[in-house]
Specification:
Helix content is about 50%, strand content about 15%. With about 180 residues, the protein is α+β, with helices and mostly antiparallel strands.
Length: about 180
């Protein structure tokens, strides 16, 4: 069943209340009416509609909720994750990058030195070798990645990926594509 159909079945308050009562164990129309406070005619109409929609079945004369319909619907109609380009050809580095970089932004700086080094090497690739950058340009590039750009800049210098002199930075380490 399509998710829209499930939502449609439960969009009316009375049907939602009736379905909830059945899920919570009310198995006869009279019990459902008692638990929901709805009129018997409303309960019977809602049960009929829910049964026709596949959310309620009758087993041995008693109503039973078909809660697996939700899982089945999600499994069948959930959008498939898009295939994405790896952030690094090395699978281990790619896994680290995917953990800390979401939607093109660094979500947090890793505490573990090895993981932080992988992230910093990835960020160092934003800087062209041989080009000197003023501190404001470095800050602007790093701010696009993470709000605490000063920490990133300091880590890049400490890890010898960028060098600094008189507020001018240049790339001195990291992987370079040829």
């Amino acid at each position: 069943m399509r998710p829209e159909a499930l939502c449609g079945l439960l969009a009316e308050t009375d049907r939602l209340r009736v379905f909830s009562a059945v899920v919570l164990g009310a198995d006869l129309p009279s019990t459902v009416a008692d638990r929901t406070g709805l009129a018997a005619r409303t309960v019977v109409a809602a049960l009929r509609r829910l049964q026709h929609g596949g959310l309620v079945d009758v087993v041995d004369g008693r109503f039973v909720a078909q809660v697996d319909a939700f899982k089945d619907s999600v499994r069948e109609y959930a959008p498939q994750p898009a295939e994405t380009e790896p952030l690094d050809p090395d699978r281990q580095k790619d896994a680290i990058l995917r953990t800390f970089i979401v939607d093109g932004r660094l979500v947090r700086i890793p505490a573990a030195h090895g993981k932080r080094r992988v992230i910093l090497e990835h960020l160092a690739a934003c800087f062209e070798p041989g080009v000197k950058y003023p501190e404001k340009a470095v800050d602007a590039i790093l701010r696009a990645w993470y709000p605490d750009y000063a920490s990133l800049r300091r880590y890049l210098v400490d890890e010898a990926l960028l060098a600094r002199e008189n507020a001018v930075y240049w790339r001195v380490g990291g992987y370079v594509e040829v």
